[in-house]
Each structure stands twice: as C-alpha cells, then as structure tokens.
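Private note to self, pasted from the team thread so I don't lose it. Backbone tokens:
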C-alpha cells in the first residue's frame, strides 16, 4: 500500500470513531437532560416544585418563584426583621448592583478621543434583590392581614343555656 492511501485510511477510520463517539455523547446528554432524580436540588427552582399544598405560604412561593428563606438570604436578613431593615438592605443592594453613572468625557486634552469602557452592572442580581423584597413584603402583608382578622365566630352554645334542670 502506498503512504497516501494509508494516511487517508487512518483519517477516515479516525473520523468514523470520532463521529460515533460524538453521536453516543449526544444521546447520553439528551437522556441526562430528560432525567430528574428525586430530591435533586439543582433541578428545582428555589423549592417551588415542592410548594404544592394549598397554603398561603406555598402560594406565595409559587407566585414569586422564591422561598422566604432564599429571600432572607439574598437581602442578608434574619427571620422577623422589620420592614425598615428590609428596605434599607434592599436599597443598598439595588444601588450597588445597579449601573454606575458614566464619568463626563474630557472635551480637550490627550484623552479627549478615548472613551472609557461602559461600566458594568448585574441586571440579574438586581432582579433577584427586587424579587426578594417583594417576597418578604408579601409575607408581611399576609401576616398583617391574619393579625387584623377577627377570630371566627363560635357555634351555638351547648349545655343548659335556657333549658330546664
């Protein structure tokens, strides 16, 4: 056999092996994407899938797509802190992760033609901070509504109320 024929045969065989391996890897990736193991943390968005009961807390968790614990972690708060602390931490984190004002470009001088790179910020983190504040405020509203509700009326009195002895 000649040298060019051997080289071509090696390349074709290598390409076939590589193609089969790539195909099998794609099949395995598709299989892995469909499979969600029971109790997997990464596949559940903030415990929303487990919020299946009809309770008000689960309803808020599904609505805001965030648990109350996660909201407290994002805003660096402890359970039961006041609305004032929630808003203080929210404003600080929102401002820190927001876009910074661009400096005024010099009109004359050596740096007049060069523009600095636009400042970066994290829209994702800002949205998480907003959602965390909304989740905590919703929970506080529910707690306040429950406190202001009068107790349910009791049924008719039992015993000898007006009966003979």
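Design output:
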């Amino acid at each position: 056999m000649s040298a060019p024929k051997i080289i071509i045969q090696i390349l074709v065989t290598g390409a076939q092996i590589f193609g089969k391996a790539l195909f099998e890897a794609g099949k395995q990736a598709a299989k892995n994407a469909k499979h969600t193991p029971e109790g997997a943390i990464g596949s559940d968005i903030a415990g929303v899938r487990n919020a299946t009961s009809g309770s008000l807390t689960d309803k808020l968790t599904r609505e805001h797509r965030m648990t109350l614990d996660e909201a407290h972690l994002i805003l660096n708060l402890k359970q039961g802190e006041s609305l004032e602390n929630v808003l203080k931490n929210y404003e600080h984190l929102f401002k820190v992760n927001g876009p910074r004002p661009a400096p005024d470009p010099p009109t004359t001088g050596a740096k007049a033609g060069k523009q600095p790179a636009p400042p970066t910020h994290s829209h994702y983190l800002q949205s998480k901070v907003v959602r965390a504040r909304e989740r905590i405020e919703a929970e506080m509203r529910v707690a306040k509504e429950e406190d202001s509700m009068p107790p349910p009326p009791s049924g008719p009195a039992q015993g000898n109320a007006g009966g003979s002895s």
